[in-house]
Design a protein that fits this description.
60% helix; ABC transporter transmembrane region fold; six-stranded mixed beta sheet; 3 domains; Rossmann fold
Length: 630
């Protein structure tokens, strides 16, 4: 495998906050009508709040004060009507608030659906090299922590920001109408509040970005330890991994503590500043009322407007935590979405064909068991090259990184229908050969040809569609046994799946499962033995029915008796196909047409079993037990 995992580095500051916000809004484009309705409802809700507060002056000056001074009790009817109107206005405002909150939930879930879709699509398009340098936990944190932070911002923060902005504007206008003197006092305190928010939130934002990065590191380590828990216990490393996690967790704690220290003091500081503003306004308003410049009702209404004015600013400061976390998460999400996809300049495609007696090739949409490479020239003419399975390596040089070369001028070929075996010590480059045939990695030097065609000219998806692989590390998906075998060819019928299972000799053990082929497989086949899992992988390759078959330690977990039982089936599977076998168990390669012995990235011996035994070289020593593969 390539070099060690590299931890993702998060920049000290977002590269472009406006660009990130614009990117999020672009995902909300499909919800323009709903957003317009949300804004309208926010206006209604805010307007209801401001209107209800403005009625306080009427209640006090036109009704309560006259009644307190002995006015006619007939004013009570007018007061009742006014209070009823206020109740109706507040009810409309509350209903509007509830409605736009529900709509924002719909918008946020739809937006996250589109973001996750793009995220998953990009993940499928990324080159294998990307996954070599990023842990699974780091990638999963994009789908969990980062998208959840975006959801919190979309469902709550955006609506709150719009509502707060409208409230501040509307209340400010009303305060100017009621008393310009008291409004000047509010403006002075407003500058103090804004300065405080900017100072505290700036420090908090830096630590929130670090927190998100450390959270990804912690998730990556936890997932790695869960996957390797048996290994940890076998070697008794529980204490060591706990100590390492304590260090990772400690960094996360420090980042979270620093971020939330500043974030959590913001709300109390703003609340106290709002209380100071209220007290100063009450003192100044009382003085103006005593002097006769303002009425008592005006002062009371203005004090309430002061609360309504400072509260949105406090809410904005409170939502900054969610916004900062969301922007840090969005930056990571969009960073993955913007990663360069796997490059593919191939133009030759794989098609199903039938061949007439005269050699004419007819293209078909359905599976026929015969294939051809289809090349469309610039003038529109079409050429077909029948897929025979001829594979050729010509002086191939490759390394996963610049510091270490894995393959050093490897040349080999496999004729159609031949079985080629690669043997050698771990790290000799055997699996790298199969990775290059699939174009998981591109070559810096040398050429690989498939039926005489440079594989760089073949579209990657079509190239891989022509190759069937059975890997040492078998992966089974959640689903039935039938579904997992059919993964090799999704359009395969049930009878074809069963035939493939029989070919791989998997049918007997499948029949003994509780529900046979309909038995559910979960947790990567934890309810099956390793040998049974590999038999299903072999059956999956059999149902694919492709011209080239690659077996990478395919029988390493199958006992000798089972190996003998499937040998005939494997021979039938390999008939007429080019087969490349990588094996430590030399008994599986004795009948190969050609055996290549790799050492330090070079082929040091080649020939069939008898020829190599006669040479009395490394292969001979391996077979006679004088040398062991490691």
């Amino acid at each position: 495998m390539p070099g060690p995992m590299n931890r993702m580095r998060v920049p000290a500051k977002p590269q472009n906050i406006k660009k990130i916000l614009a990117r999020i809004l672009s995902y909300m484009a499909e919800s323009k009508a709903r957003l317009a309705l949300v804004i309208l409802l926010i206006f209604i809700s805010t307007g209801a709040q401001i209107a209800g507060t403005s009625f306080l002056r009427l209640v006090i000056d036109d009704y309560l004060s006259p009644l307190a001074n002995g006015a006619d009790e007939s004013l009570l009817n007018g007061l009742a009507r006014l209070l009823a109107l206020m109740s109706l206005i507040y009810a409309i405002g509350a209903l509007s608030s509830y409605t736009y909150s529900r709509i924002m939930l719909v918008i946020s879930t739809g937006t996250l659906y589109r973001i996750r879709t793009d995220l998953f699509r990009k993940m499928q398009a990324l080159p294998i090299r990307y996954f070599d340098t990023h842990t699974h936990g780091e990638l999963m944190s994009r789908y969990t922590n980062d998208t959840d932070a975006i959801r919190e911002m979309l469902s709550n923060s955006i609506a709150n920001f719009i509502s707060s902005a409208i409230t501040v504007t509307g209340v400010f206008v009303m305060m100017l109408i009621y008393s310009w003197q008291l409004t000047l006092l509010v403006i002075v305190m407003l500058f103090v509040m804004i300065r405080t928010v900017k100072l505290i939130s700036g420090r908090s934002g830096q630590y929130f970005r670090v927190q998100q990065a450390e959270l990804g590191n912690a998730n990556g380590y936890i997932e790695e330890m869960i996957e390797g828990l048996k290994v940890v216990k076998v070697f008794g490393h529980e204490t060591a991994v706990k100590e390492k996690f304590a260090g990772i967790n400690g960094k996360l704690r420090e980042a979270a503590a620093s971020a939330n220290t500043f974030a959590n003091i913001l709300m109390p500081v703003m609340a106290n500043l709002a209380n100071i503003l209220f007290a100063l306004t009450a003192i100044a308003g009382g003085a103006l009322a005593i002097s006769g410049a303002l009425t008592v009702g005006t002062v009371v209404a203005f004090l309430q407007f002061t609360r309504n004015f400072s509260m949105p600013i406090t809410q904005i400061s409170q939502q900054l935590n969610a916004v900062l976390t969301a922007l840090a998460g969005a930056e990571r999400v969009f960073g993955l979405i913007d990663e360069a996809p796997e490059a593919d300049d191939g133009h030759i495609t794989l098609v199903n064909i039938t061949e007439a007696s005269g050699g004419a090739i007819q293209e078909h949409a359905a599976h026929t068991g015969q294939w051809a490479w289809k090349c469309v020239d610039a003038d529109g003419s079409v050429h077909y090259t029948k897929v025979e399975g001829r594979v050729e390596f010509d002086n191939v040089v490759f390394g996963y990184d610049e510091e270490r070369t894995i393959l050093k001028g490897v040349s080999l070929y496999a004729e159609p229908g031949q079985k080629i075996a690669l043997v050698g010590s771990t790290g000799a480059g055997k699996t790298t050969v199969t990775n290059l045939i699939n174009r998981f990695y591109d070559l810096p030097d040398g050429k690989i040809r498939y039926d005489g065609i440079n594989i760089n000219k073949i579209r990657k998806a079509d190239l891989r569609r022509s190759l069937s692989m059975v890997l040492q590390d078998t992966h089974l998906f959640t689903g039935t046994v039938m579904d997992n075998i059919r993964y090799g060819r999704l359009e395969a019928t049930d009878s074809e799946v069963i035939a493939a299972a029989k070919l791989a000799n998997a049918d007997p053990f499948i029949r003994h499962l509780p529900l046979g082929y309909e038995t559910m497989i979960t947790a990567d086949g934890a309810n099956l033995s390793q040998g049974q899992r590999q038999l299903l992988a072999i059956a999956r390759a059999a149902v694919a029915d492709l011209p080239v078959l690659i077996l990478d330690e395919a029988t390493s977990s199958i006992d000798t008796r089972t190996e003998k039982l499937i040998e005939k089936g494997m021979d039938r599977l390999m008939e007429g196909r080019t087969v490349i076998v990588i094996a430590h168990r030399l008994s599986t390669v004795r009948n190969a047409n050609a055996i290549m012995v790799l050492e330090n990235g070079e082929i040091i011996e080649r020939g069939d079993h008898h020829e190599l035994m006669a040479q009395r070289g490394k292969y001979y020593r391996l077979c006679t037990g004088m040398l062991e593969l490691s």
